[in-house]
Amino acid sequence: MTECTPFSVLIIEDDAIACDVARKSLMRLGCRVTITHTAESGLDELKRQDFNVVIAGLCIRRMGGRSIARWIRSNKPATVCIILTSWQGELENAVLVNDGISSIIHKPLQFNEIRQKIGSLIPGVTEFLPEEI
């Protein structure tokens, strides 16, 4: 297993447009970004290497973001899990905490929201993240 470098993010999402927007935003923030389009390939990446943050689609086929978050909570507890969703309804905070989900990012993706979420979840990182360009 390789050691995690600062700001390494794994995106597990089957929406190619969302992946591209998230990748571009995260790269602007100085993150090293890896993208997988299935839950299975995402878990394979997590088994191979460590990431600071995983951004997983809530409704990704076969497994779902909540199941991915529970796997991360059990197997990679130092990894922050953020759920990506277009659903605008409320998610119970107790359910999120129980699943190991630290935050939610809503579609359509916005650079400032991604910056704020990453900055709030990784101690000391905000001072290094650029403002919107």
Which helices and strands appear, and what pairs or packs with what?
Blueprint: E1 8-12, H1 16-28, E2 32-36, H2 39-48, E3 53-57, H3 65-75, E4 80-85, H4 93-99, E5 103-106, H5 111-121
If you had to describe this structure to a student in words, what would you say it looks like?
It is a single chain. By secondary structure, the chain is of the alpha/beta class. It has five helices and five strands, in the order βαβαβαβαβα. The protein has helices spanning 16-28, 39-48, 65-75, 93-99, 111-121, and strands at residues 8-12, 32-36, 53-57, 80-85, 103-106. Strands 2-1-3-4-5 form a five-stranded parallel sheet, sandwiched between helices. The model has no long low-confidence stretch (mean pLDDT 86).
Strand order of the largest sheet: 2-1-3-4-5
The dominant shape is globular
Number of strands: 5
The pLDDT mean sits at 86
Percent helix: 25-40%
**Terminal Cα span:** 35 Å
User: What are the secondary-structure elements, in order, as H or E?
Assistant: EHEHEHEHEH
CA gyration radius, whole angstroms: 13 Å
Low-confidence stretches: none
